[in-house]
Amino acid sequence: MKRNLAMLVGVIVILIVYLTGTYNSLVTTRENVSEAWAQIENVYQRRADLIPNLVATVKGFAQQEQQVLIGVTEARAKVGQMQLKTSDLSNPKLFAQFQAAQGELGSALSRLMVVVEKYPDLKSNENFLALQSQLEGTENRISTERRRYNMLVQQYNLRIKRVPASLFANMFGFVAVEYFKADAGASAAPKVAF
After folding, report:
1. Do 152 and 39 contact (CB within 8 A), yes or no?
2. Residues 6 or more apart whose Cβ sits within 8 Å of residue 148
3. pLDDT score, position 154
4. Positive or negative, the Cα torsion across 189, 50, 180, 184?
5. Is the pTM of this model over 0.85?
6. Is the pLDDT reported for residue 163 higher than 80?
7. Domain locations in the chain?
8. 139 half-sphere exposure, CB direction, 13 A CA radius
9. What is the per-residue burial (b if ≥16 Cβ within 10 Å, else e) of 51-70?
């Protein structure tokens, strides 16, 4: 009887240790996703902070291109209004809205760079060149951070979907998180006309 009781206690202790380890692993993986998301927000904020300076620099050279400048400003304002919390990362609709707003801003910035090509004096302006370089670097950082985020989301989503962790994930409210997806039309090569 003592032997059976000792075995039962041993099994319970092993089960508790296993459950604790599984839970802690799920928490760690989820926190890695949250940290990656925070870094994406950081880089997006950097881009948003650069835009007013870029628009002001271009505005002096390209007065007749007001529509493009207004488009960039409006897209930046829309992005500023669309905040996505870590808890919203599992909501496909909100995530898609956030990604669409960021895509609109990227598109507006691309149109702005096309306008810049019309103004040779602007292209040689030291302030503009510095801002353009900062913006290009920021766009590269965004791409890198999105890739890192997607890798961590994959690890997390796999972790919560595999047995036996999936049983505990459901019990403790761990839900799948959305991936960043390519913008619509991103697979098509841009058309260049001279």
Report:
1. no
2. 36, 39
3. 94
4. negative
5. no
6. yes
7. 2-171
8. 14
9. beebbebbeebbeebeebbe
